[in-house]
Amino acid sequence: MPLPVPVLPEGVDPAWLPVEALRPLGVRRTLIRGSGPLVDTVHGEVADACGRFGGKVVRGEEGAARGAPDGARYDLLLEVSAAEGLGAEGFAFGRDGGTTTVTASGPHGLLYGLFHVVRLGAAAFAGPVAREEHRPATALRMLDHWDNVSVHPVMGQVERGYAGGSLFWRDGRARGEAERVRAYGRLLAAVGINAVAVNNVNVREAETRLLTERLGEVAGLAEALRPYGIRTHLSVNFAAPMLLDGLPTADPLDTGVRAWWAGAVRRVYAAIPDFGGFVVKADSEGEPGPFAYGRSHADGANMLAAALAPYGGTVHWRAFVYDHRQDWRDRGTDRARAAHDHFAPLDGEFAGNAVLQVKHGPMDFQVREPVSPVLGAMPRTRLAVEVQATQEYTGQQRHVCWLGPMWSEVLRFRTDGAAGPSVAESARGGIVAVSNVGDDPFWTGHPLAQANLHTFGRLAWRPDADPCDVLDEWIGLTFPGAPARLADGLRAVLRGSWRTYEKYTAPLGVGFMVQPGHHYGPGVDGYEYSRWGTYHFADRDGVGVDRSAATGTGYAAQYAKAWAEVYESVDSCPDELLLFFHHVPYGHVLHSGKTVIQHIYDTHFEGVEEAEEARRVWAGLGDLVEPARHARVAERYEEQVRCAREWRDQVNSYFLRKSGVPDGQGRLIH
Ligand code: BDP
After folding, report:
1. Distances (CA, A) of 26 to 59, 98, 124
2. Cβ(235) to ligand 1 under 6 A?
3. What are the pLDDT digits (tens) for 118-154?
4. What is the assigned CATH class of domain 141-478?
5. In CATH, what number does 502-545+583-659 get?
6. Where along the chain do its domains lie?
7. CATH 3.30.379.10: does it fit domain 19-134?
8. How high is the ipTM of this complex?
9. Where in the numbering of this chain does the Glycosyl hydrolase family 67 C-terminal domain appear (predicted)?
10. Residue with the nearest Cα to atom 9 of ligand 1?
11. What's the gap in Å between 201 CA and the centre of ligand 1?
């Protein structure tokens, strides 16, 4: 019996997953071979898409005859064949003799194969296509929701969430809207995502209880996500045994603590047999962790890994560990160094089912950071790379900032220099994004931020894909049949939007300069005299952080030789990262030929002009975009342009006053 295809609440954008798109293609006869719940899902999808105009779906067990009894051909053949060596999630696609065929070794692959057909649309049913094999680059493609169960007085329902409330929780309890969660699972599966962590990494009182007495609420979410091959993960508090059951310690080597976790995990798997595992933020920004007991992070992670191992679960241990109480008068410690300092010496000590989850840059999701040196320093550890789709520091979904090019650069970066593995190849533990989705009718708070979610999923599947091709794919699926003017307009406003954002915000990799707390809008000195370790060191002579080994914090030496040399020297350091690695005088001449100060002035003027131009382009698309979507984006552009001007004016005035160097083009008045 095919499962029903999820029904979206009224007004919710179906986003880019119109399996219904198969309907107008006239797929009249489909054969599905295989069994199990995911094959039922595929069956339900196809039956719903094709059934309403009289198309017929025939279901057979694996190995059943391929030919139709009446001798007529099938338009579409979707089959599981264990004999194929395509891995759990891979599939083969081809077209021959008028039949489009998807063959998978397992049901997950069949689901992804179906969505492949849907993405191709009419092209999947035209001409012969020689067999192609598709497999995900990594087995774990995950979204971490920073969703709070109870509304946090400062962070709200979703920490750093800019898409309304949580899809999962409202006012302290599960929303219980299974159909919507199921629809979300469908949306994620359509872009290849297969794991979701359903609560915030900062695990507070109510969230801690999800592990025990509130487990049923998590099981409800897992049930709704399961039909689309999504495994559910939970963020847990390292001190849970103390908080929940009054144990005197959370020491990872204490037998009582280990027994407590083993019992907790046993109960989780009794309720959720395909549970994915835990996400842990420990010894970070006030969260408890193994340091309190003089234990290493490998001790902490391995304790949880041991509890999860009998059930096939994984612990995702975050490498975001740093001292957030630095004294600004004695800024000897460099926050950028922290993850490498803490974790690189532990390479080889983590259990096989422990994944070290590393933010893509050494600081915190800034618009421009170098790739974290941890990603090249731990070959004997399963690493996952974490990016941030929610755009905390990149416009909070009020600004258009398509992050595809940034993520692509990170995933392709070769940590050893030209040879050696790419970050994507090193990230054997998976590719993870902090989710940008909430209960907003558009899923993401900015309708064009859907492109980030789509791009994340597709790059996690295939990290070497050209992000611009992925963007085009999203455009084609989200605006089916878009006339050239619309597609061109969307490309124009999205493709360069990350660089535009970079131009009007913190320059040359220096980072931060945001308003403290909420992190939106300019605050050039916002964090300069606080304890968070995020400084730009601007004075009357120059700006930037000396992270060289020769005279600075030594961070540059955390890279493999090839990169350490590039970053160590002012001459070879790439312009866009110059102020991340070096403190230079304002008159320093960049490779571009401009001085640093003139670069700052010019890019800030250009960035605003580009934002204004994007707003103009979008305004001109009003006749081609559905009104609600057009209006929402237009409204966000008003804010983007206002905020970009504010950034320009504050950053330029600040540097004009600090440096006393006039703008070469005479636009700024001292
Ligand atoms: C920072 C966020 C904070 C998160 C933290 C993390 O500001 O809300 O808790 O990252 O990743 O970017 O744990």
Report:
1. 19, 13, 12
2. no
3. 999 889 999 899 999 999 999 999 999 999 999 999 9
4. alpha beta
5. 3.90.1330.10
6. 19-134, 141-478, 502-545+583-659
7. yes
8. 0.99
9. 444-667
10. 202
11. 8
